[in-house]
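Q: How do we represent a protein-ligand complex in a form that can be generated token by token?
A: Start from the inputs.
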Amino acid sequence: MIRLFQNHHVRKYQELDGLWDFQPLGENSKVEDMEGYDYQLPVPGCWESHPSFANYRGNAAYRKKVIIKNKTHLHLVCKGVSHTADIYFDGSFVTSHYNAYTPFSHVIKNVTEGEHELIIIVDNRFTDQSSLHIPNDYYTYGGIIRPVAIEWIGDVMVNQVKSLAIKSGESWNLELEVDITLLEDVQDSYYLKGKIANQTFEVDLKDKNLKFNHLIEGLKVSEWSPDAPQLYELELQIVRKRDEVVVDDYIDRIGFRDVTTKNGKIQVNGEDVVLKGFNRHEDHAIVGASFPFSLMVKDLELMKDIGANAVRTSHYPNDELFLDLCDEMGFLVWEENHARGLSLERMQHPLFRKQCEQVNQEMVENHYNHPSIIIWGILNECASNTEQGRKMYQEQLEQIRALDTSRPLTFASHHRAAELCFDLVDIVSFNLYPQWYTDEDPSELADQARKWADQLGGKGKPMIMSEFGADGLYGYRSPTAVKGTEERQTMIIEANLDAYMKKDYISGMFIWQFADCRVTEEDWFMTRAGTQNNKGIVNSYRQPKLSYQIIKNKWS
Ligand code: ADA
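Then emit the structure tokens for the protein with alpha-D-galactopyranuronic acid bound:
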């Protein structure tokens, strides 16, 4: 399932879920060296879920045959390939993409009737071509981890529509930024027909103005809010004038809400909110990073059961299906670009800026319309304590602001008094682990963090405790309550929540972390028991630890 709603009624599309031929490739072998495929693996899926590839870090070929009944242009849509994809169609190279966590697409023109071969070479190795996927305190899986679809398109297609809801008195306006792609030098003329809530509209596509804004005013709609997550379908159609035939369409879902940061607080539709939630990796003991819809629901239902209202997509953009679910369930989302704990040296990797810029673009362009996303975050615990790092933080925050002025920006800092970038963001966020990594008192530390924020460019800005928590090895119980027991994890989380829930200047708290997750053996096995980050309040199978009930008692 690619989305929680029908993305097209007119444009024909086929999701390529299923068993694909699979063959691991040698260190330097190429697709043309392929002899045969000895395996069949599910797509979407991680190859680590297959017994033979539980620890495989390398490259591999996935192959799928597709039948085309009549000549067409094909729009290939990939929602996530981990972490690098080289795509071939009928043996010819089509496109490449780096990064597991952002979607990409490509048009293959004039595909004839008959059987065709789609091959995706997937590579999850840590090489000098990868500045963001590196050995880390989470796992870079291998595979086509999110859905793939092919779409039949004509000469004109709706490529992307960004929708900005703007309150206007008692009603709402909707500013559309429409991007239409013209594939051939067509002679026909077209117009765009649209429908949202109680209004229809038309825009003439004269002189092929293919990127334009269109304002719809006076919409009488119910707002999207965490308690009443009302969604509306925006339907756009491209109509050929000479015969009124609809040649393409595009459907998305819109929530009418706005996000502000005033008086040191965060507001949704003018109402102050306090975010209470979890940092969540897309990681599960059985499916790795490739979540079927039912397990996405499971995670959010558990969070709802605990009384959480927010989730941070630590540390990368999430599967759009998960964001659709957050839209429907009224979760508030801090979505962030892909980076975790990169030193200045790593930020100076020759590909870092280009790869971050690409992820930021793909994240914002593709996820812009989700009302559940109320904050964009960047560069978790990177070198924002250095002048050179600051330049890159500033560059990325400016890039995202240029793409989206409607959401506040932040980043999670662990640099305490040495932080140099709080003046660049709308919300100041702290990763602090009092009682775990330090013996500090959570209440005193939070007060001190507020002072750091005020002194370092964050005065008057909302403050989020973006990470706090402790290891708790599932099933390790002991009256000693030593660090690593579930008892100690519970005590530490309780002490943090008791402190933060009382502080009026704290607008959000995200426990690190929702579920235990796999980490890379390289660099991390010594500091992570079982080569796992065990700070989940459930284990990687979603079995609750002692802390689950304590948090629930406080939040629900
Ligand atoms: C950091 C980091 C998390 C995780 C956490 C921990 O704050 O942002 O990804 O590694 O530490 O478990 O120590």
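The chain is about 20% helix and 35% strand. The first helix runs from residue 293 to 306.
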